[in-house]
Amino acid sequence: MKKSVELSSEVFLTSHRLDSENETNNNNGGVANGVIVRNAIKSYGVGSNRYVILNGLNMTVKKGTIYGLLGASGCGKTTLLSCLVGRRTLNNGEVLVLGHEPGSPNSGIPGPQVGYMPQELALYDYFTIKETLEYFGRIYKLKSAFVKSQLKFLSNLLDLPSCDRYVKTLSGGQQRRVSFAVALFHDPDLLILDEPTVGVDPLLSNSIWNHLVRLSVDHGKTVIVTTHYIEEAKQSHTIGMMRSGRLLVEELPANLLRDYGLSSLEDVFLKLCLKDDGNVPAGQSTELPNIVALKDTDQISAQQPPNGHVNMSVQQVRIPSSSKRQSFKMALPSPHRVGALIRKNYLLSFRNIGIFLFTYLLPALQAALFNVTLGHEPMGLKMAVVNEEIDPSLGRVCNYTTDCAYSMLSCRYLRYINNNIIQVPYENVSAAIEAGRHGKVWGVIHFGKNFTQEFEMRQSNGDSAELDNIIRSRISINMDSSNQQIDVFIEKWLVEAFENFIQDFLKVCGNVPEAGYLPIVFLDPVYGQKNTPFTEFMAPGLIISIVYNMAVALTAGVFITERKQGLIDRSLVAGVQMPEILLSYLINQFTIIIGQTALVYLFMLMVFKIPCQGDLALAILITLLQGLVGISFGLLISTGCDNEMGALSLSQASFLPLLVISGICWPIEGMPFYLRKIAYAMPLTYAIESVRCIFARGWGVEQPNVYAGILVSCGWILTFLVLCLVVARVRNSSS
Question: Which of 41, 61, 110, 171 is the most core-located residue (most Cβ within 10 A)?
Fold first, then answer.
């Protein structure tokens, strides 16, 4: 085994020359080295919870070779590959891939320069094989002729099933072959394959390795492969054996077997692990003897053997410290990538047509349910009636006359009570009160024994009536006020009944009916109508809340599953930008919201006859803006949450506070003054008030109460989308 070259004064004296040569290699696309990693350190967490994943790792991959990266699960292989494709960044150290830092401008990584096959399948279950490859073809903007030829070639190479088969119907091995085809599809210069042959037939695995060798030798492709099958890695040009975030060795497979005098790479790996065990203090960077790097083609100390393997020299290469870090500038969305994402989202939506239709029609069903159940007058309310004017022992029954006669006025009054009240006779007050305590009736109406005579005397005496006469001539009512709404309705109906009774009595007696009015009169309202149904007050709030909450629910977990399955990462490695993903979902969900909004308004206005006095188009505009607010908030939840349960909890936790604080069911004026300021800061409040003013008052956009709903909605949309990008950037930088 070759001995490493110690860093000495001679190396530092010649460092300027080496840096210049590296810069030359970088400028011409990395002729000698495909991948260079120096002193890579990657950790997660802080303080005592800090875990080091990559610990001073050094790695060199010669361009046009296959590099087999071996190591047990958890040693840092996947993290290292993520750093190479630009999905993660190192805490410290340097990475050059094809002569550029991943993520730097014009590097093509993430992008078309790299083909990435992650450990996860990272495939859309509801896509066919053809649709899967065509999706990535659109991402890379490949020509249709190339897509067709690659589809045919890869189908034959990998023995893929029929291209019309859905991915979810394939076996595990077949799915991995499709995943491998995606990595090869756009003919990249660098292939990074994480466990490509797991679950694959041995014959097919051999075919895959032969193809990788051809790609590297005949076409100059650089391939990095991780595998659990150590022996199959013999076909690699270089082997890197990794343990605890460090490379134990980086050498030709034949040299490893020769130098250690062993017959298998597994035995070599075991011997290296035993040798390494306990020799390196935790947390200390390690550079082991066989970590070498190729500077250029002139430094190869041996000729390339017939099998394409390369013997490497022991020159130590220093990578110049780069002052250029990941750019935080946001590029404009690419139309072809956004188009591919939108098409993908629509296909996934329509593949499960039952769920799609249910989701599409649910807001209309909610609107119908709200209108059927809320705001209507209660019916079938039982009231106990104790009428002491009726004495069955004297043969009295509840008869009354419609003439001007003071006879059984209690019965005459009961005739005017709203039919929504069911009158239940009781013999005495105590029995009636007891029935109320047991919830059998909502209240008790009590007439005294001489109610009619006392009422006549009170009318005759007018202002001279005595207190005893006034008390005996009144109708006594005991209410069950545990339900305020029912209490209010019953009181309203009983008062209206008395007004109608007294006006009719005065009229038949030749008096002016208006004399029975209270000295307070409510004239025609400025807006609305007398006895406006409560549904008309609630309708704008219900419309806004239905559209907003459906938008949140549709979007809150929209790409969490894709992220967990590695689908988002695979698209990002292909060059898709997070703003493009967000924009595509924004467009997809907004088109659904347009249809949902149309159905909600159709049910509200046409079926349930909710009147709109103003510009309906303006009300719809504000509603659609609220749909965008909900979509933006849902995207923020999706960006910040790691699982569907967290997203569901956040979206549901926000529902009730917004429902009660935004003036949907109850006027904001009923809140404490300090809470009103919070209420008006909520996303829905101004929008609900705006639509309410359009519906009930007919106001236009020139009114502050109306245009405030538009401005506040736009402000919340912008705020949520900016937060989405910030959260996505923070998650990416901390991952």
Answer: 61
**Helix pair 685-692, 673-680: axis angle to 10 deg:** 90
Q: Tokens 């060798």 label which residue? A: 213
Q: Is 350 exposed, middle or buried (0-12, 13-18, 19+ CB in 10 A)?
A: exposed
pLDDT one-digit tens code per residue, 419-459: 999 999 998 999 999 999 999 999 999 999 899 999 989 88
Tokens of 244: 């605890």
pLDDT attached to residue 674: 87
CB count in 10 Å sphere of residue 392 = 8
Angle, CA of 646, 88 and 40, to the nearest 5°: 135
Read off the tokens for 459: 């009318």
Angle between helices 534-555 and 578-602 (to 10 degrees): 150
The H or E element that residue 569 is part of is helix 567-573
From the list 31, 21, 81, the residue with the least C-alpha distance to 57 is 81
Q: Is 13 helix (H, G, I), strand (E, B) or coil?
A: helix
User: Are 451 and 400 contacting, i.e. CB atoms less than 8 angstroms apart?
Assistant: no
Instruction: Please tell me the distance from the alpha carbon of residue 173 to that of residue 159, in angstroms, as a whole number.
Output: 11
Kindly report the average pLDDT of the chain as a whole number. Answer: 84
412 touches 400 (CB < 8 A): yes
Edge-to-edge order in the sheet of strand 222-226:
114-117, 190-194, 222-226, 66-70, 238-243, 246-251
What confidence tens digit (pLDDT) does each residue in 545-604 have?
A: 999 999 998 898 888 888 888 899 999 999 999 999 999 999 999 999 999 999 999 999
78 CB-near residues (< 8 Å, 6+ apart): 118, 119, 194, 226
Strand order in the sheet with 92-97: 51-62, 33-44, 92-97
Confidence check: pLDDT of 661 > 50: yes
Structure tokens at 101: 């830092």
Structure tokens at 246: 């460090």
Show the tokens assigned to 278. Answer: 């306990």
Q: How far are the Cα atoms of 148, 175, 335 from residue 226, in angstroms, in the given order?
A: 29, 18, 35
Closest CA to 253 of 281, 227, 232, 277: 232
Number of neighbours of residue 558 by Cβ within 10 angstroms: 21
| pLDDT at 636 exceeding the cut of 90 | yes
């083909």: which residue's tokens? Answer: 115
CA distance 583 to 392: 80
pLDDT at 113: 93
pLDDT digits (tens, 9 = 90+) for 275-331: 887 554 333 333 333 333 333 333 333 333 333 333 333 334 444 444 344 444 567
**pTM of structure:** 0.79
Provide the 3-class DSSP secondary structure of residue 330: coil
- Residues 158, 210 contacting (CB under 8 angstroms): no
Q: Is the peptide bond before 112 cis (omega within 30 degrees of 0)?
A: no
Among candidates 556, 166, 541, 637, which has minimal Cα distance to 359? 556
